[in-house]
């Protein structure tokens, strides 16, 4: 086991996180500039879609067991948790897609090489 080495992040995972951050910013900026409360709320909820589903599943349990008078702090921490969960989900999905794509591309390259070898030999 190597200790003290540099962490190497997946390129496809980081691209996926970048796409999610751009998507979230495209929804958050108009939500902050709109003075209509309902539209701003909908845009903010849409910006947390992947993590909001996960955090929303446990929100009822957390709210039920929270002490009274902590509603604002709880809402803020749940929204931050939604964004962090969204970033983690985006990274994992990007990593998985990159891994599957790498496996498929490797198999396709082998098939291409076999096909090109047959063409070079004249076998048809």
Features:
single chain; 124 residues; mainly alpha
Explained architecture:
This protein is mostly helical and 124 residues long. It has one domain. It is 81% helix and 0% strand. The protein is built from 4 helices and no strands. Helix 1 crosses helix 4. The longest helix is centred in the last third of the chain and has 51 residues.
- As a whole number of angstroms, the C-alpha radius of gyration is 23 Å
**pLDDT < 50 runs, ≥5 residues:** none
Number of helices: 4
Estimated helix fraction? over 70%
> Given the C-alpha coordinates, what overall shape results?
elongated
The portion of residues forming beta strands comes to under 5%
Task: Explain the layout of strands and helices.
Blueprint: H1 11-33, H2 37-46, H3 49-64, H4 71-121
Give a brief description.
With 124 residues, the protein is an all-alpha fold. The chain has helices spanning 11-33, 37-46, 49-64, 71-121.
